[in-house]
Design brief:
With 690 residues, the protein is an alpha/beta fold. The chain has twelve helices and 36 strands. The mean pLDDT is 86.
């Protein structure tokens, strides 16, 4: 390839200025001397040309192949129906057709799901795949996709190239699918209050209505028929603190694309306004302040505390108007407002005829309907005034045997306690004997039901927990927990023990003795199975696609079995173990990739047509065959597609192998031309004067 190049010997502005002077002198010479001045102008022009330093450049070029990018969509929506097979067939056919073009080098780029919840990002994959390709070498781009693309540029300028873009759409126009779309989903809710969820059923090829099932933490709340394409509302009660997983599931259609988007999950964080605790101390004693300090230190606890200083039978003749005592509001607390409390604590309380039998029946009913009671026993528990001798007896897990053992001992965690979240891993329990101080008294009792978590002197039960219908009961058979709080013999973990105990009674999910939990760590699912049994059965994990897998568990600590498994799918996974169920989301709970799964030709039409390309389906309704258009090279024009073909735009890209430069205004030839023109001008002008 031959061309002319200039390498001025003086700066460009000087060359232009000199050119202007030469042009002016030539015009003046022509005006004053006539045509003979042309030779002077030629001589000055040769001087100017010499300063411009022209040269002939000969390049040895080698034509290179044009690049055609083929982006193959492998996102989640491309795994539905027969799209994977269609995609593979289209790719194979494009490989064959581009292979027959001698001057084309096809580059196939695989595009997976975007990170996080970015969806399908074909243009980002195209940019990354062509990072080493100059834009003028790109002859065309072909997308093999279902049309569900989430990073389409707003204009052609955002593409970064000027080659035609074609999209070959997989999927079929007669696809059927139904999905549920969330319109309003609360993130937080007050425990015991209702939260409103708004959603809508979207469908193509459906029936116009569908049955929606509402679950909370795996338990069915309601089922109702809902019209499609019409927003509807649901009220869901937040039952407990922590995450309440609400699931909306719509029944599927026959032969629909996927049922992975038939379910929407709303994790709602339950927040307690205040934990209301009623603490009733039967008499002033050293351990009373321990309970009060513990409960008052928690900002989430609203404590009501009464200490009985003057029982009814104590009459000293003091006039009522001179007493500074507050009457115990028994009727208000144990009849009118008993259900407002989350926990009732009887601290060294003896039956002193303050509470009539009907009030104890109210307490039993309160527990069985979901309330909680803690009996912190002292010597009175072994006396005639014991609560175990009242109508509370059916729910108290132990009956006193009349003995009171007063001797130093270290509280021991039982085998059952090693497995229970309330007492497992208490600080100091890792040693034998435990690294905590001694207690000095324990009340002898015969456990009738429940789990004994701690024992004391002579292996007597010290801490017993029991479930009673929907409620819970705890029995602490010593009043010396305060010794740990006061640092006696270096104290002990009184805060951990008493706080865990109170929170278990108030149904803290993290302290459930039978629980199933799952969490996501990147693409891995970590499963924890808390159980009081010696072994744990394998858990079943159901992927968003419906594929089930059984995962064995390994005991990591007493009562705690774990497993970690890698997930191949994004979306919500269901984990089951017997009657227990939990959910874990890899990526977002409701992935963007599955929110709209219908293949379409509209999304990419504008950007493709702006480049001169086209968007077309490779399959039609009712036909199982695949049609891939022919590929032609179009050297000129603005349209690069036809009825059965798509076009690419060849470029003139080449690699320069060598360059030869031949100066034109320097050396002997230039000197001869300059001297010749000057001499000719002198001779002609001299003859003219003669």
């Amino acid at each position: 390839m031959l061309s002319i190049s200039f390498s001025p010997l003086i700066p460009a502005y000087g060359l232009w200025a000199l050119g202007a002077v030469v042009a002016l002198l030539a015009v003046l010479a022509l005006v004053s001397r006539g045509p003979v001045a042309i030779l002077r102008a030629v001589a000055l022009g040769l001087v100017l040309l010499a300063l411009a330093n022209p040269a002939l450049v000969q390049e040895d070029r080698e034509k290179v192949k044009d690049i055609v990018a083929v982006v193959v969509d492998r996102s989640t929506s491309q795994t539905l129906g027969d799209r994977p097979a269609m995609t593979d067939q289209v790719r194979a056919e494009l490989e064959r057709r581009f292979g027959s073009l001698a001057d084309v080098d096809p580059r196939f780029i695989e595009a997976d799901d975007g990170s996080g919840d970015d969806g399908t990002r074909l243009f980002a994959a195209l940019s990354n795949g062509l990072a080493d390709v100059p834009p003028d070498r790109l002859a065309g781009v072909v997308f093999v996709t279902d049309g569900v693309v989430h990073d389409i540029p707003s204009s052609v300028e955002g593409l970064g190239f000027r080659a035609p873009l074609h999209a070959l759409i997989t999927g079929r126009p007669d696809e059927r699918d139904r999905q549920i779309k969330l319109l309003e989903a609360p993130r937080f809710g007050i425990v015991g209050k209702d939260q409103t969820i708004r959603a809508q059923i979207m469908e193509r090829g459906g029936t116009g209505s569908a049955l929606v099932t509402v679950r909370r933490d795996g338990q069915v709340l309601t089922r109702q028929q809902v019209r499609a394409d019409t927003p509807f509302s649901l009220d869901v009660r937040i039952e407990h603190g922590g995450t309440n997983v609400v699931e909306l599931e719509v029944e599927g259609l026959p032969n629909e694309l996927t049922q992975a988007n038939n379910r929407a999950v709303i994790p709602i964080e339950g927040i307690r306004e205040k934990l209301r605790v009623l603490l009733v101390s039967g008499e002033p004693h050293a351990g009373e302040r321990t309970w009060r300090n513990l409960l008052k230190s928690d900002a989430n606890v609203d404590l009501v505390h009464f200490t009985i200083l003057r029982p009814p039978e104590k009459q000293d003749g003091t006039p009522i108007n001179e007493l500074s005592l507050i009457a115990f509001p028994t009727r208000e607390l144990f009849q009118q407002k008993i259900k407002e409390f989350d926990l009732i604590i009887f601290d060294r309380y003896a039956n002193q005829s303050i509470l009539p039998s009907s009030y104890f029946e109210n307490i039993v009913r309160y527990v069985r309907e979901g309330g909680a009671i803690l009996v912190a026993a002292g010597p009175e528990f072994a006396s005639y005034g014991s609560l175990a001798q009242t109508r509370l007896a059916p729910i108290i897990p132990g009956q006193p045997n009349g003995s009171i053992v007063e001797q130093p001992y270290k509280a021991q965690i039982t085998d059952t306690g090693d497995r229970h979240p309330v007492t497992r891993d208490l600080p100091g329990s890792e040693q034998s004997p435990p690294a905590w101080g001694e207690w000095l008294r324990i009340i002898g009792s015969q456990v009738q039901s429940g789990d004994t978590l701690m024992s004391g002197a002579n292996d007597l039960p010290l801490l017993v927990l029991r479930r009673e219908d929907k409620g819970r009961v705890a029995l602490l058979l010593s009043d010396h927990a305060w010794l740990w709080a006061r640092g006696y013999q270096d104290g002990g973990p009184h805060l951990d023990l008493l706080r865990r105990l109170a929170h278990w009674l108030m149904k803290e999910p993290a302290l459930e003795e039978e629980a199933l939990r799952a969490s996501a760590q990147g693409r891995d699912i970590r499963v924890e199975r808390q159980t009081m049994a010696e072994t744990a059965d394998p858990v079943t994990i159901v992927a968003p696609s419906g594929q089930e897998s059984s995962v064995p568990l390994t005991e990591s600590r007493p009562g705690l079995f774990t497993a970690q498994v890698a997930s191949r799918e994004l979306g919500l996974h269901t984990v089951r173990s017997g009657d227990l169920i939990t959910f874990v989301s890899i990526g977002p709970a409701n992935p963007r990739e599955l929110m709209d799964v219908f293949s379409n030709t509209e999304a990419l039409s504008a950007i493709a047509e702006a480049t001169g390309g086209s968007v077309r389906r490779v399959a039609v309704a009712g036909d199982q065959s695949i049609t891939v258009p022919r590929v032609l090279a179009v050297h000129s024009g603005t349209r690069f597609s036809g009825g059965d073909w798509i076009g690419i735009k060849p470029s003139d890209s080449a690699i320069v192998r060598g360059v030869s430069v031949f100066p034109m205004a320097l050396g002997f030839v230039g000197l001869v031309l300059l001297i010749g023109s000057t001499l000719a001008a002198w001779l002609i002008e001299g003859r003219r004067r003669a």
